[in-house]
Design brief:
Layout lengths: L5 E6 L3 H16 L3 E7 H6 L4 H13 L2 E5 L2 H8 L4 E5 L9 H9 L4 E6 L12 H7 L9 E4 L11 H4 L2 E3 L21 E5 L13 H17 L4 E5 L5 H4 L8 E3 L15 E3 L4 H7 L4 E4 L15 E3 L2 H13 L2 H14 L5 H17 L12 E7 L4 H17 L2 E7 H10 L3 H15 L3 E5 L6 H10 L4 E5 L12 H7 L2 H13 L2 E4 L2 H10 L5 E3 L19 E5 L5 H17 L4 E5 L15 E4 L5 H9 L5 E4 L5 H4 L4 H8 L3 E5 L4 H4 L6 E3 L2 H13 L1 H18 L2 H24 L1
Parallel strand pairs: 1-2, 1-4, 2-3, 4-5, 5-6, 6-7, 8-9, 8-11, 9-10, 11-12, 12-13, 14-15, 14-16, 16-17, 17-18, 18-19, 20-21, 20-23, 21-22, 23-24, 24-25
Helix pairs in contact: 1-3, 4-5, 8-11, 14-28, 15-16, 21-26
Keywords: Glycosyltransferase, Transferase
EC number: 2.4.-.-
Protein name: Glycosyltransferase
């Protein structure tokens, strides 16, 4: 008899097979659902060795499930029509990598309860690493009705408030398919090294792939001296080692089987860069170490408490300790798992998933709200640059969270990745047009973009009547050498200058960060629709001023602002000589000038933080009494925005800034001190240092102005008005 309910499983990434497999067995064997596997055509292309297609065939043989291939959500919809039940996705979010499953969930018939599973310990939309944020941003939403997570509460650091109502804590499906039979490990059992070299974590903050490969090779050489074997496991989706045909040391072998067919207990220890496979190793109770790059740049905070190693010598020392004294590591790891508060008992996890099948059996149909989305915004940027976060993601976050706006981010990094796969322009155009058609943006915003393929995107937008905005916050057509040879060479490359010029002339609306920038571009591009916003950076008071003796002066800047600091160094040096109890701190990538080195520990540094929300929270804890905003009087700087004044004011820091710049307006009415000569800079520093009451009054006035003129709500209103202007201009273009 035909079952009354259907369980559909969307398989798009090769990793989805591993995540969904236990539930496929539950649906078919335990609950008698008609079980169908919908496999995206992209999955077939990703499975370069045919491993996972064979696994799908085997799963169908063992469960009686059927499978079919779909090209897009329209063909998938035809399969789902006249059915009801559950539809599971192993990966779903509004990011481009998950768009195939995401679009199917969004367009699924109302008779289905749509479910997405957390597919990794750190997973977009659930828990981001710093590198995830740099690559994908912080605003992620799901197309599913129910979001199954590995854990709950405070651990879901990246889940939007609007998505938390969908939450169902289940634990990982991996515990439902772990080997349980007794096993005795061989005395000469090899160690296991797992690579995930395709991950953004090993690419976005620096190229750590070569570090890992070199460390692995040298580690194998050390192991060979003791006649020890090493097993290397490629990431199922990335397959970096095999794709790139990297030579394998003689004492190393490859294990490329699906994780549920590997008994990790057979290995004497495990090593991996930050990745979910570390959790598999912990569950198998083998000594486990987390690899980090030599400089500790890679974000591994989610794995704090586990053993960390970096150099080949540390790998080797860990391997010997793991073999001879495994209990010290096992105890550490069990405590780590306890702190995560993940459901890990297979019976408990099974029952949590069983409730979903039981609910589907009771529910006749799922009545989902089908309110139309207000706008689907596509942001295009060179990367997760601060401008994108400041100008759009931060002010629009509440609208993304409540679903009244949908957004996706396409970066130059992603486009260049596709260019490697599609080297000719025809193939690249096909991919880009397919991407745009699938996402169907209602407005496109190029944010500081100077990368490739802008002409293809502009052409698609014009052909589909989609308004285009170009947002610019620097004179990217005239980058002076003063800000650094490397940055100047980067922006002044003919391809980048050409891309910016093309976007400036062909976008429906150019959105400039300041009025001076607006005036400058209006002169260069007569006839172009250019507007300037009243606000560039918004803020709110995070920390009120404190009545105390001054102890810290700071400057927040990247390395390309070194020339600005050099301009006032004599005043800084003289001030520090006069005030021996004061510390001077540099926040960002700006190097310490040689003139300040003689002050030793009184000069401190803090590294840059890419995620803007995290940066502000961290910055508010630094306790700066005075923040400086020097700008050399060059044309490039005259078009700068007053971002530092907003950020300093938000964290309760008094401001001294260069006169005759963008800071003139915000420092009016006693909300900051303006200076030009060395004498004026020194006098301003001394005034604030020796008059705590005046410093408090200045900050209070500035924070009052911040709360009135620079609110997030005002910037959000400004951005939405810019969107409306672009739509009106596009309508006139279409009509003409």
């Amino acid at each position: 008899m035909r079952p009354s309910k259907t369980a559909v499983f969307l398989i798009n990434l090769v990793q989805d097979v591993n995540i969904l497999r236990p539930l496929i067995f539950m649906a078919s064997r335990d609950f008698g659902f008609e079980t169908r596997l919908l496999i995206s055509s992209k999955f077939l292309g990703r499975d370069m060795f045919g491993i996972w297609q064979s696994e799908v065939d085997r799963i169908c043989e063992e469960t009686g499930a059927t499978h079919e291939v779909y090209d897009d959500e329209f063909t998938a919809f035809q399969t789902l029509t006249n059915r009801s039940g559950l539809i599971f996705a192993g990966s779903d979010s509004n990011l481009s990598a998950h768009s195939t499953s995401h679009n199917v969930l969004r367009s699924a018939p109302p008779g289905f309860i749509r479910i997405v599973l957390q597919h990794g310990f750190e997973c977009v939309g659930f828990r981001h690493s710093g590198d995830h944020v740099r690559a994908h941003g912080t605003t992620v939403s799901f197309g599913a009705d129910i979001v199954c997570s590995w854990y709950g509460g405070d651990s879901l650091t990246a889940m939007s408030p609007s998505q938390r109502t969908k939450l169902h804590v289940t634990g990982p499906t991996a515990v439902l398919q772990m080997p349980t039979l007794p096993m005795t490990r061989l005395s000469d059992a090899p160690g296991l090294v797992c690579e995930n070299l395709h991950s953004v974590r090993l690419n976005i903050s620096g190229d750590f792939k070569s570090q890992f490969v070199k460390a692995f090779e040298e580690f194998c050489a050390l192991q060979a001296q003791d006649e020890c074997q090493v097993t290397l496991r490629p990431h199922p989706g990335g397959q970096y080692v095999l794709k790139n045909k990297l030579p394998l040391p003689e004492n190393a072998t490859i294990n490329n089987a699906p994780m549920y067919r590997v008994d990790l207990r057979q290995f004497s220890y495990g090593i991996s860069a930050p990745s979910s496979v570390l959790i598999d190793m912990l569950l198998a109770d083998i000594p486990t170490a987390v690899w980090r790059d030599g400089n500790g740049v890679m974000d591994s905070a989610s794995y704090d408490g586990l053993t960390e190693i970096s150099s080949p010598a540390e790998w080797n020392a860990f391997s010997k300790e793991a073999v001879n004294h495994p209990d010290q590591f096992i105890d550490l790891q069990r405590k780590f798992l306890q702190r995560q508060q993940m459901p890990l008992d297979p019976r408990d996890v099974y029952e949590r998933f069983a409730r979903l099948f039981q609910a589907a059996e009771r529910i006749q149909t799922s009545l989902r709200p089908t309110e139309p989305e207000r706008d689907r915004v596509l942001f295009i940027a060179n990367g997760m640059v601060p401008t994108l976060q400041l100008s759009f993601l931060k002010p629009l976050a509440p609208l993304f969270d409540n679903g009244s706006l949908v957004n996706e981010i396409l970066t130059e990094v992603r486009i260049r990745e596709e260019m490697q796969v599609s080297p000719d322009n025809i193939a690249l155009r096909g991919w880009l047009e397919g991407y745009l058609t699938d996402y169907a943006p209602s407005i496109i915003v190029f944010c500081r973009y100077s990368g490739p393929a802008s002409e293809i995107i502009l052409s698609w937008a014009h052909n589909n009547d989609v308004p285009v905005i170009y947002h610019i916050d620097d004179d990217l057509l005239n980058i002076p050498a003063d800000i650094g040879e490397r940055k100047s060479a980067y922006h002044n490359h003919p391809d980048r200058v050409g891309a910016v010029s093309n976007l400036m002339t062909k976008a429906d609306l150019v959105y400039a960060s300041t009025e001076r920038l607006n005036q400058r571009f209006s002169g260069r591009f007569p006839g172009t629709n250019i507007v300037a916003g009243r606000i560039y950076c918004s803020g709110s008071v995070l920390r009120e001023p404190e009545q105390r003796e001054i102890t810290k002066v700071g400057y927040m800047a990247s390395a390309d602002h070194a020339h600005n600091l050099d301009m006032i160094l004599p005043a800084i040096v003289q001030f520090l000589d006069r005030n021996p109890d004061v510390v001077f701190e540099l926040f960002g990538s700006i190097p310490v000038p040689t003139e300040l080195e003689r002050f030793g520990e009184r000069i401190s540094t803090a590294p840059p933080i890419a995620n803007y929300d995290r940066f502000l929270q961290e910055f508010s804890s630094y306790g700066w009494d005075i923040g400086i905003c020097p700008l050399t009087p060059i044309d490039f700087n005259l078009a700068k925005a007053n971002t530092k004044w907003v950020e300093y004011t938000a964290v309760g820091t008094a401001v001294i800034a260069s006169r005759d710049t963008v800071y003139d307006g915000c420092c009016e009415d006693g909300c900051g001190i303006l200076a030009e000569t060395q004498e004026e800079w020194l006098a301003a520093l001394e005034l604030l240092a020796r008059n705590p009451d005046e410093r408090i009054k200045q900050i209070s006035r500035a924070q009052e102005k911040l709360n009135g003129d620079y609110t997030v709500a005002r910037l959000r209103e400004q951005v939405l008005h810019i969107f409306d202007q672009a739509k009106e201009i596009a309508k006139r273009r279409v009509a003409a």
